[in-house]
Specification:
The protein is an alpha/beta fold and 253 residues long. The protein has one domain: Ribonuclease Z/Hydroxyacylglutathione hydrolase-like (Metallo-beta-lactamase, Chain A, 4-Layer Sandwich), CATH 3.60.15.10. The protein is 21% helix and 29% strand. The protein has eight helices and 14 strands. The chain has a seven-stranded mixed β-sheet with strand order 6-5-4-3-2-1-14. Strands 7-8-9-10-11-12-13 form a seven-stranded mixed β-sheet. Strand 3, helix 1 and strand 4 form a beta-alpha-beta unit. The radius of gyration is 17 Å and the shape is globular. Bound molecules: zinc ion (ZN). The site of zinc ion has 7 residues, from helix 2.
Length: 253
């Protein structure tokens, strides 16, 4: 299984438009962060988790030629607003499967009514196959995926476990009952927005405490704000098995 970090930035991305913050001005390519998303591939399967406003660029940069589906963590704009750009895949492959919580499907139906409506459909509009996610494991390709309920402030968000890999973005808290689903995971991705506290995201301290609790072999931090600091400086201070992810980083497991 190969995981590609398509984007590792928080909702505005880095650099932030119009910002002269030193991290936004950094020349280190690892300080340029598109909106969060990962590509997961194994055997002949390729899935994307979330489809934010940078989806088109992410597909081009990584030369993605087909996707078997898009799995959504939640409905916020930084995770959904690229949906129209599935068009090249739709033209080649036909209707694109999407997987989401009922609430998230509802939100997508409102925001992208022209994709979901069957009446008077514009010929160039893409179509999707809706797959409703519940708290039960579901199948992607030949793999069972475990959804994990986490809290993004007061909003329910899904994290996902693919065998020994788990991806939890936009998390502020996780109920004890859900922790069981992460037992034995080898590679864990969690959000760490910045050092200061935030109402709906782990800060660095909370992310590290969570990693300590789950005890994966290694962990990667994502959904990074420019306020967190320079990639190189953050990495130098992290525990040995914790890495700050960066755009286009690939890991194999
Ligand atoms: Zn987000």
């Amino acid at each position: 299984m190969t995981i590609t970090f398509l984007g590792t930035g928080t909702s505005q991305g880095i650099p932030v438009i119009g910002s002269d913050h030193p991290v936004c001005m950094s020349t280190d390519p690892r300080d340029k962060r598109l909106r969060v998303s990962v590509l997961i591939s194994w055997d002949d399967y390729t899935y994307v988790i979330d489809c934010g406003p940078d989806f088109r660029q992410q597909m081009l940069t990584n030369q993605v030629r087909k996707i078997d589906g898009i799995v959504f963590t939640h409905e916020h704009a930084d995770h959904t607003m690229g949906l129209d750009d599935i068009r090249p895949f739709f033209f080649k492959q036909g209707d694109i499967p999407i997987y989401a919580h009922e609430r998230v499907l509802d939100s997508l139906r409102t925001r992208f009514a022209y994709i979901f409506s069957s009446e008077n459909k514009y010929p160039g509009a893409p179509s999707v196959v809706e797959n409703l996610l519940t708290d039960q494991p579901f199948t992607l390709g030949n793999l069972d995926v475990i959804p994990i309920n986490v809290w993004h402030g007061k909003l329910q968000v899904y994290g996902f476990r693919f065998k020994d890999f788990a991806y939890l973005t936009d998390v502020k808290s996780v109920d004890e009952t859900e922790l069981e689903k992460l037992k034995g995971v080898k590679v864990l991705v969690v959000n760490a927005l910045r050092k200061e506290e935030h109402h709906s995201h782990f800060n660095e301290e909370e992310a590290l405490a969570f990693i300590e609790k789950i005890q994966p072999e290694r962990a990667y931090l994502t959904h990074i704000s420019h306020l967190y600091g320079f990639h190189e400086e953050i990495q130098a201070e992290l525990p040995e098995n914790v890495y700050i992810a960066y755009d286009n980083l690939q890991i194999n497991l």
